[in-house]
What does this fold into?
Amino acid sequence: MQFTPQLPDLSHPSGMASVSEIGAATEEALVHSASRLATPALVIQAAVVRRNISRLAEYAKRHGLLVRPHTKTHKSQMMARLQLEAGAVGLTVAKVGEAEQMRPTGDDLLMAYPAVDSARCERLAEIARNGTLRVAVDSRQAVDALATSACGANSVIGLLVEIDVGLGRTGVGTPEETLKLAQYISGIRGVRLDGILCYPGHIWAAADEQEPFLSTVSSRLRAAQALWSEHGLEAKIISGGSTPTAYQSHLVQGLTEIRPGTYIFNDMNTVRAGFCGLSDCAAHIVCTVISDAVKDQVVIDAGTKTLTSDLCIPARESGHGFIVEYPEAKITRLSEEHGQVDVSLCTKRPKIGERLSIIPNHICPCVNLRDVFWWCEPDGAAVSVKINARGMLS
Amino acid sequence: MQFTPQLPDLSHPSGMASVSEIGAATEEALVHSASRLATPALVIQAAVVRRNISRLAEYAKRHGLLVRPHTKTHKSQMMARLQLEAGAVGLTVAKVGEAEQMRPTGDDLLMAYPAVDSARCERLAEIARNGTLRVAVDSRQAVDALATSACGANSVIGLLVEIDVGLGRTGVGTPEETLKLAQYISGIRGVRLDGILCYPGHIWAAADEQEPFLSTVSSRLRAAQALWSEHGLEAKIISGGSTPTAYQSHLVQGLTEIRPGTYIFNDMNTVRAGFCGLSDCAAHIVCTVISDAVKDQVVIDAGTKTLTSDLCIPARESGHGFIVEYPEAKITRLSEEHGQVDVSLCTKRPKIGERLSIIPNHICPCVNLRDVFWWCEPDGAAVSVKINARGMLS
It folds into this structure.
């Protein structure tokens, strides 16, 4: 836990920031806006993001895997561009609104999420007119709905058949069912059978304990692929992966691409599960101590409307995030706009007005709660970046 | 639990809706937009809102209490206007951005939240130039910061001294401390001593079991008021209340006003704690069944980015919201965009593509996740309403 925060000092004019959105131009203006950055602010360390992106890109290249990062984490065109520049083959989204926001940046999109209603499918068919679009399906209803819309829009949507590999959320249950759905798809106009998709979202074991889980994933994917092959169908794409299993993806035989999302920023979920260190966490929520009226406690201006109620999956009792400057402190309770911090174990007590940097338990929903984040270069310059797909729920 | 949902049928053209924001004008356009309302949609029943507002207004009038509703729940100027039209004396907010959004609607605002940094205080001092603004304080630092900004802006900010009545979050700990802070305030330019504020947010006992809690609140407020009076200070305002204790506020002696927020919409927190019935819940999240691949389960297009991870405070094991059409179903698990629903106890299984109406555990953070909600009149007409203070974190 020897993490030296490299945040610009946001409480003093020496921490320079430019607010791109309000077009601050002179150096004086830049300094002024930095000293007044309103909290709670989401501050992203550019250097850490670049390192996280290139580390995964190198791993994937070494193992012959393509990367299709999930943009649900950052929801930002600028972050997607960095990922594509580092060699990502395309982008992943969960919702149609996200796909619409990411289309200007990426001409190869995968919606790893079912679409069954005509409103969604028509928007997807429109997106498919301007580049590659694939959608994961686990029902004939989804296939029919997508095909109808694609035919109407004169476009083609690529389909990946989702197979459940243990999470029990979406995805058909057996390799045989993937075959049935694949055969159904291959007879229908407007859609194109492209492969198989799985989401191993249940694997939160440490990297060196993932092997039994991953071998189950492997054998399911292999069985499905073999069945398809026997029946003359090809799974050109076998798409898997999420951040916890990202660096073990080479252990899953047959995988062609991975779709991690959180790895770009990381959070206390990935830290406490042992997938990365504190210094790999690019996203800090900078907040202000607003009260110290209660003994052994301070209150910060970040509650569930900033940090969400998401607990830390591998350490549910660890509180609502990690305070970089006070590692012994514990965020014990959140209201909507208040965070109660137990400081009884701290050698020094944070003062009213002091700014603290929090690494949240789960970064993805925190990003979704705001319109912009602050992109900080190592020299201290900070630029506001729009979170383009914020609140794109449908 | 005999609740008949009065939602317009959003899947058929007969459920009319006008999209005010896109300016749909002809009847054909209205019908068209209703049948395509994208899910997950937040749909608000106008009739229930009106009843909830007038019920509280009548109760307060009967007991000589003023109502200053907390706008954090709806974050909407239109809802605030309805509350003011029903006699609310002013509006409550938590953050400065909310105050700025509510100022056009309300000329009497209370920020029931500490402000200690110059950025926030300067914005507040500006707001105070155009009408009444009060802020709750629990430290000398807050008083100094607000006073400095108010003097700089040539405005005056009214202050309420917050006393902790059991939650242990913010507020000074004893009546004696309220006196000390009140005396400090009364000697400082730019601020005006207006009274005492408390937040009984720890009281989740049923209405008929609240008396012991409320008598503690009473005695603390009485003691503080008596001390102030002995020292020649007047607490013109004694502000308390939240939704769970709203209808027991007359049991707290000396209270001049209450600040409930949730009562306008209600949610499963208020239902399961026994404060209201299902038919008093004005806010439904309409979502779509997107998968039924797993036995005894369906998946809806609403996860934590729609419903949040907030558990139901009085019934933590009750799942992530109540499905109106399937009372026996249980939303067992949320991912960011998926809701897994156990339907094993349902006599009928929801179909893929079917729309379901969910009453969330905690409505306030759900409203904050979106830009608009749909305001439905009993005749089925639906208008989109902007959530003005959405994402106002600072």
About this structure: The radius of gyration of chain A is 22 Å. The first helix of chain A runs from residue 27 to 35. Chain A touches chain B through 67 residues (CB under 8 Å).
